[in-house]
């Protein structure tokens, strides 16, 4: 009995794999297996004692073979293309990776008799909501192909549940930051933390994309959550499904509070000891002005909690960045 983690060699996926491996010491049902095509992941993020299958979720035959060979009983699906801004320029690629890829995965799961999945969704499904704090009942109005593709992924799970009895839950979150281990770092060329820390490490000035948003200081407001906290909730969701406990169709993993990009910059300067005034660039397409989510339902059912302060988020990311090869 194992859990397949698609995208398990990526930044978030690797943290989930490490958390599953730790949990498996007490609950062997949660032993992880990784499937990743390494398009953005890193093979050295996968622990030596965790089986690794190099394949794409678009390859139904390879996914089915991995499910059968490793006696997989559940899947945590993180593989996908996650850049909202870039998705505006590459909508077809985004849909292929996130929608077609999820459909192929579900096809392989059905063929192999695997009937439980935890899906990595996104707060981007909400677009720019007209409430200060979104809940799971907030209407979805995605504003980018990325957000649209994640919402369609949720629909695929819902419909497959009706058709085959698939047991599933989707976790919606936005800005995942920090590091649970100095060896695991965010290498995204688009995420705020690595962009800022890479700039500082190389002596450049970080940039803010847009200071004219309808927010108190004009910069985007986001719900920043630490990757280790996020990984723990993926494991909790997998365990709940394995136990046969009922779960909601979707959960928000949010703090209920937001930080603006300007506030993040101030925190980075304070934690790193590097004083700087960020450059100002234009808004990025597909970037909502504010998304802050309540995590109350996830706290009730998945033990979700924000256990790291903004300073700890920055400090752990900075330590991992300085150890980056």
Automatic annotation (TrEMBL):
The keyword Cell division does not apply. Belongs to the NAD(P)-dependent epimerase/dehydratase family. The lineage of its organism: Bacteria, Bacillati, Actinomycetota, Actinomycetes, Micrococcales. It catalyses: UDP-alpha-D-glucose = UDP-alpha-D-galactose. Residues 3-254 form the NAD-dependent epimerase/dehydratase domain. It holds the Pfam family Epimerase. It comes from Cellulomonas xiejunii. The gene is galE. Its EC number is 5.1.3.2. GO terms for molecular function: UDP-glucose 4-epimerase activity. It is an enzyme of class 5 (isomerase). Pathway: Carbohydrate metabolism; galactose metabolism. It comes from the Bacteria. Keywords: Carbohydrate metabolism, Isomerase, NAD. This is UDP-glucose 4-epimerase. PANTHER family: UDP-ARABINOSE 4-EPIMERASE 1 (PTHR43725:SF53), UDP-GLUCOSE 4-EPIMERASE (PTHR43725). NCBIfam families: galE. Its cofactor is NAD(+).
